[in-house]
Amino acid sequence: MRSGTKVAIVGGAFVVVASGVGYGGYNLWTAMNGGSSGTGTRAESTHGSGPLGTEEVTTTVKDFLGAWATGESDRAAQLTNNPVDAGPALLGFREQAKVSAATITPGPVTGTTVPFTVRATVTYQGVSKPWTYSSQLTVVRGLTTGRPLVDWKPAVLHPKLTSKSASIRTGGAKSAEVRAVDRRGRVLTAEKYPSLGPVLDELRERYGATTGGRPGIETFVDSGVEGVPNTTLLTLAKGEPGKLETTIDADVQAAAEQAVKRYGTASVVAIKPSTGAVRAVANNPATGFNTAFSGTKAPGSTLKIVTAALLLEKGLVKADQVTECPPNVTYYGRSFHNLGGFSLDGATFAESFARSCNTAFIKKIDDVKEMVGDDFALGKEARDVFGIGLEWRTGIKSFDGSVPEATGGEAAAQYIGQGTVQMNPLTIASITATAKHGSFKQPYLVAPEVDDRTLAEAQRPLPSSVARQLRAMLKRTATASDGTATKAMASVGGDKGAKTGSAEVGGQATSDSWFTGYSDDLAAAAFVENGGHGGDAAGPIVAQVLRAG
Questions:
Q1: Using DSSP, how many helices (H) and how many strands (E) does the chain show?
Q2: Do residues 133 and 182 make contact, with C-beta atoms less than 8 angstroms apart?
């Protein structure tokens, strides 16, 4: 043990006291043994093989936490099964995280796992602040030595260290705090709008240096990965936040937050069709991955908006023209059917669209192929008219959709939003916004003038006759007695239209639920994992968001 450190048993507790800088800690032996101050039973395995005994676990934990608490990183690392990684991480706890004192208290042993609480003091540039958190460790037997050792993972040091590249540091924040406001100047916080938590973190990372704020002093997790925001663990000294205007509408955002909470995994995005301004983005769960902007899911029949535009533009259908809708169809050996096996006799294309007839769309694929000479027309329509895959610059990370080249049965699946098509609520909301406005306006969360971004532009708008028919079909789907979106959109006023979708993904017992719609100059799209029919789960989410606009 290093010079200046004393060890004693006081009242049944193992105590470590460090002199000098004051870097030290203690390990409550009584807590680990359920209140007993004894040394445990010697009858358990101590011979380097077989299951670990309680005494082996408690002794290993005592030695490891004691060495860590007193700053003996090399000694603590040798008590793990990966000293090469553990050593620098434990040393960094003192030298990079600037922990000047630490008290580590273990909890009761559960098998070979022991929870513990760290009560530390962080000191940087004359500023000190207490820092408390909890973690846990597991003891395993060494593969070559048979010794009981701490199973090293970065999360032993802190639960937010989830990768080898991440580390804990204390210092001046990489960027200043950002006080994000909505389009009317109302402050947006993660406390009030939980889904915006990850969004606000990214906005700070991207715009903190340019919004006029002053960085504070923080203890934070440095992800070690470019583009992944740091995670603040402790604020030693607050900086001065800079102001950043976003396109969010706080009222629409509040409705979106409330709507997605009905389901375990759900996301929604709202966009202003005439400009592309994002009015809301919400996810449940609210923290972590932003599925609404970055998800890569098959969107089901909501993609029929693009397929319908393609067929209308090529002159292969008209909204009021009769179109075949058999109960099922086979294309290149792959079978497709309508929900429940329904068929429509003498129905128009608009009715097939409103009823979401899969076969009416797939039966047109050969006509398209004959006209254009290949199977890639749908992807070209999605890119050239709807802006899919054009590298959107929204202000935060986002995935702008994909309709990759496909042939045979896979190409047919794409016509109804299945197979290799990948979308998210952002892209589907944008597709709907394009149909409403008549031309693509790239979605954005922060105005491009803030950082001189160039927004993506589609090659061409929808022809006026196609846009008119498409809007009429969307309106019929949302208002006709047999429209699949009518029930969900009943409470929505204004000039409205909608499309439902159900995506059968992998071996899921229940399909994913999709829904997209618009009311006047607001479009929205929602996704609910395992939600079933689009009108049943995702539909009410979209309706609630549209009503708030």
A1: 18, 19
A2: no
